[in-house]
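S1.2 Input.
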Amino acid sequence: MPTDLELVQQFQREHDQAAFDQLVERHSDRAFQLAYSILQNRQDAEEVVQDAFIRIYRSLGNFRGDAQFSTWMYRIVVNLCNNKFRWNKVRGANCTISIDAPLPNAEGDEDLRLELPSSDASPNEQAEFADLRERLEKAMATLPESYRTAVMLRNVQQLDYEEIAKILDCAVGTVKSRINRGRELLRQALKVN
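S1.3 Output.
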């Protein structure tokens, strides 16, 4: 199986669509997970991932290999997520409706595809989990962009500090500081000791 760098080089030499398709197939799930963890909206995350791979396709000829392909891709996804997050904040999220967007149910829940905890959990435990998830999502949305992104890359994507530093284009110490400060702000917002 060719490495990411070999696929990039193959695309650069021959403009090989199959090589690019392999990169998309290999990385699209992780790109979506990252986008969804930052934006907390399926349609926005799908849009960001599509935009990211369009940008990657257009720029792949200039990729120098100074960083891993995945690090470069994550940086593009994070930047597009931050742009989308700011756009939603300024102009208001959900101003447009997608034809394939999930319909709200009678209780007003927007996304009926929310993953539920194990079926072994009692209804009370499931309700507590849903409440905690909602509180966490709201608390994450209040974090400054730099803290939110660093926490997501570390805790959701489980990237190491060095890779996060490359993605965010800052020092490892800055990454650790942002993660610690972001976690502290989350604890305060959730009133957890």
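S1.4 Remarks. Residues 17-39 form the longest helix (23 residues).
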